[in-house]
Amino acid sequence: MTNGKLIRLEADRVNHQVQSLSNATKGKAVLLQNGEHLSIFFCLRTASRVKFIDLRYSNGNEIDTVAIKLDAEIVGTFSTSISATSDWNTFMSTGVSFNSIDDGFVIDYVDIDVDDKLITQEIAMCEVTCIPNFMSNLQQHMVVSEGLLYATQNSFNTTCTEINNVNIPIYDQFVKMYAVMAVMPKYVSFSNPRFENTNDCYHLSPFLWKFRDINFSNGSSGHIESVKANLSFDEDFPSSSIKMAIKFNMEGKSKGNIDADIGTILRIKFSGMTGETIVQMQYKGRAAMSSMEQKILTPHESEASWSIPDFTWTETDLNLIEIQLNSSSLVSLSIITLSLARRQLLPDKVVGDYKNDDVIVEAVAVDLWWLTPNAMQLTLSNGQSYSGVSYIRVYRPILWNLGYAQVFVMYQDGYTRLLPIPPNGVDWIPFGSSVVIGQANPTDVRPYSAITNVSLDIETLRMDVMYADGGSAKLQLQNNLMETHFIVSDIVFGGNTNLPFAIFRSMYVSEGNSDVDHVRVNNAQPIHIMDDFGFIMGLSFNFYRTCTSKHLNLSPDIYINIKRSNQKY
Fold this sequence. Notes:
The protein is mainly beta. It is 1% helix and 45% strand. The chain has three domains: 5-124, Galactose-binding domain-like (Jelly Rolls, Sandwich), CATH 2.60.120; 148-195 and 349-565, no CATH class; 202-342, Immunoglobulin-like, CATH 2.60.40.
């Protein structure tokens, strides 16, 4: 029984004879001959106690004495047993005891127990590397204030890398100035995975619900339940008709979702159709029941679909779709699939821009922004003004390839993201963590601070930000070859001053699969990002990764530090 994490180390096959043995874990094992030694390398995430649990081996001839070493220190010896049938394909285990070399023996794997609950098999096999604790360079950016702030832990576990499950609000109702900075990760890695990974993200399926293989029989009714919808039907064979009703809920703005707003496609596909079938459909969401829409199908054209417009469904009540079939072939008719899917979103659209040698500023509209009809107004210092803006993005020159790199984005809901200039040889690096600037309710599924207006000076990249709650702030964006940061100043709260002034949002699934894994407060001891720390007090917060990640590996570390507060103690 292990006290930490069981790690299985496959025998290293380099420079050793390999035996093909069907009973080996992967069909092959290493033959270790008299006087030879086998090195099996592994990595740790942090300083840990390591205990040998088992060594799986086979031996078809004489007893061997084997010594086990860890970093050149002998930790135990044992004597191999001999298979009763002298069969090299019969594997045995040493168990937990190590206490006693001719023609050798075959090694399949070694099991070790590491007293680190967070270590993964990928880390142990050195596929993910982790750096030791470090003191950040945050102090050179810090200005000591009279205030003291605190952050709370509102994070939750997830297996989907596209969910912001890390949620850490930062509070100080007297804050007057703070800085947010993005720098490259402390580890050295040239791996640059930078696209979304929707594995285990079941909520991102295009289908809102789907039924399969619905069969009908004479004069019957039925009820089918799924996780997201319920279907019931009644058959009336004398009149050759079937009536179906599908009832379902939709998530909307209260869950940070657009499902209740986005248009949908209803599809139905039949089998066993021998004659003409009339399919009639109507629906009810946030408005009264729609008019009936009819399609006529034949054995050669047995599929139908309907487009249902945006803003049809409701998140506050049950939604309803009714379908009636009239056909002379009901006895043999069945439904292969019946589904409701989101319509395809259009690409984001640049509704205005400014370009010169030093900067590119773009105003972008999202096809169906989650806070629609709310949007923000962007006014540039050259007099240009754009409405219906979902987010603003800023690009700066890349000196080594005469191109531009995106370094900043600010969404209408207050989410901001930063990037340092990509290192030489890299065309672009991905965003990762976000910081919500402005007061937001941290208990919301998707906390936000709605922005109404932004005035941006294209020469200085200084922005005046106005919020829907009546608050305001100034934001100064700056960057160099090592970092990008902005300073938020002249903060005026318009809402509840007990709400956080900023919220750090990010993602953590496991070590080696995260956008952040630690936070360091006031340059003190690091705290794991998913620890149940309740609340932590300090003036500076460094959110960073100690382990390389298969998700957005080069997305930056984020520093948040308070420069001025009127709070006194």
